Amino acid sequence: MTSSFFRSRFLLAHAWPALFGLLLSGCSTLGSVGADTFTLEGELPADFALEAQAHYGVANGCNGRARTRSFESDFEDSPHAYRFRIPVNYRDGLCEMRLARVGLFINGRYGDKDWQRTYDNGGLELVDTLPEGAPRFDGNGRLSKTAECTWFFQLSRAHSRKGEISKLLSCSGAGAYLANQTLPGKFVNLSFQVQQEERPARRNTWLSTAQGWKPCVPKEGWQQCQEPPVFGTFRMDGRECTVYPKCKE
After folding, report:
1. What are the boundaries of the signal sequence (predicted)?
2. Does residue 228 have a cis peptide bond before it, meaning omega lies within 30 degrees of 0?
3. What does the DSSP 8-state code read for residue 165?
4. 238 by DSSP, 3-state: which?
5. Domains of the chain: which residue ranges?
6. Residues with Cβ within 8 Å of residue 13, at least 6 apart in sequence
7. Prediction pTM value
8. pLDDT digits 0-9 by tens, 152-182
9. How far is CA 104 from the centre of its chain?
């Protein structure tokens, strides 16, 4: 009986460190994946992609640091949906991490070359109190918005492609304020539309004609159209053109 008692104490003494470590490991792992979440979803136009960067701060005063998690949808040749489940809070070891904001990178492409890609920004800001007039979740826990995106064209000044058409992207309405106390379990539907008409990136540098937009040749030291206007040419898809977007009059 005495031998059995000491053998049991010996086994327990040697097993306890491993068991204790396993418990700690299990708590840390479960804490990092168990979280309250909300869903960010919507529709993207063809040749658009979206990246959401969720920024977290330490909420319980532990000795931790801010964290970032990224969620991405890729480019597609046709309109497509995206859906991200974003944690509102989670545990990282002993630290409670709480979502502070979600930065959005709205990526668009207008050609197959690397330089024919650009982006605009948007964002979801978490607040304790919604600003006056800010959209709120409906009775089904959904908030829906549509961002309007416009392409702005210009002549590239880059030495390697000077005189080529390049574009900038601008998206309005690509964000919202969210009340952090009621966010878990909610759905934010943020969709994107592209305006059919493109516009010059700078005023009075192109003139609209019945055939299309024609680029002005400015006076030396002057950025805008001359009076009367003098028109130049530009390059697009390897062709020399006189009007945008048709290229030829």
Report:
1. 1-30
2. yes
3. E
4. coil
5. 1-33, 35-200, 202-249
6. none
7. 0.82
8. 999 998 989 999 999 999 999 999 999 999 9
9. 2
